[in-house]
Amino acid sequence: MAILKIARMGHPVLRRKAEPVADPAAPQVHALIRNMIETMRDANGAGLAAPQVHVPLRVVVFHVPEEGADDKDNAAAQPLTVLINPELEPLTEETELGWEGCLSVPGLVGAVPRFTRIRYAGIAPDGSRIAREAEGFHARVVQHEFDHLDGILYPQRMTDLSLLMFQEELRHGIPEAMRGVEQTEVEAV
Ligand code: NI
Question: For residue 46, how far is its CA from the centre of ligand 1 (angstroms)?
Fold first, then answer.
């Protein structure tokens, strides 16, 4: 296993659309997944998409830790999940603002509007199909990771760039616009 180098905002691999995995059972794909999990854990992230480790394939890994799951979530904490060639569908037009960080945008956090309820599906490493509905932080993480597969970073989703800031500066207080948001921890994904 290996810890992989994480691409940062501005690298072209983060702007391109990733390709579907032709053979999810291929040993190279399983090696990539193991290395992505190791890299995500090493970087203390909650999620990682293959383009973030310079591999333009449609593979994401994520988990929702207990502290990331809020009380409103029906599906709170989620175990480590690997999705190959995933699909996503919003189940509502309703969006909410929440803080996001990204391992490819180190040090910064931003308030990003995301759909509050989604359905997603994909192929697991054992070849089985995963299909879930998600709300809250779980839905947010999944939308963030899927965006990586389409060459989109979270600042491109932001509607108020005054809420893009260095995480350390949150010590001066939560900006007015975010005071009603319960989520306080910002996990990089
Ligand atoms: Ni990210």
Answer: 9
Full DSSP string of 125-184: TTSPEEEEEEEHHHHHHHHHHHHHHTT--GGGG-S-GGGEEEGGGGGG---GGGTT----
Q: Which is it for strands 59-64 and 47-49: parallel, antiparallel or unpaired?
A: antiparallel
Contact (Cβ atoms closer than 8 angstroms) between residue 120 and residue 99: no
CB 35 within 8 A of CB 61: no
Q: Measure 92 CA to ligand 1 centroid, in angstroms.
A: 23
Query: 126-164: per-residue pLDDT in tens?
Result: 999 999 999 999 999 999 999 999 999 999 999 999 999
Q: How far is the CA of 112 from the centre of ligand 1 (A)?
A: 12
Pull the structure tokens for residue 61. 């890994």
Cβ < 5 A residues, ion ligand 1: 102, 189
The one-letter code for the residue type at 64 is V
As annotated, the active-site residues are: 145
> What pTM, to 2 d.p., does this model score?
0.93
Q: How far apart are CA 118 and CA 104, in angstroms?
A: 24
Label residue 165 exposed, middle or buried (CB < 10 Å: 0-12, 13-18, 19+). Answer: middle
Cα(102) to centroid of ligand 1, in Å? 4
Q: In one letter, which amino acid is 120? A: Y
Residue listed under structure tokens 């947010």:
140
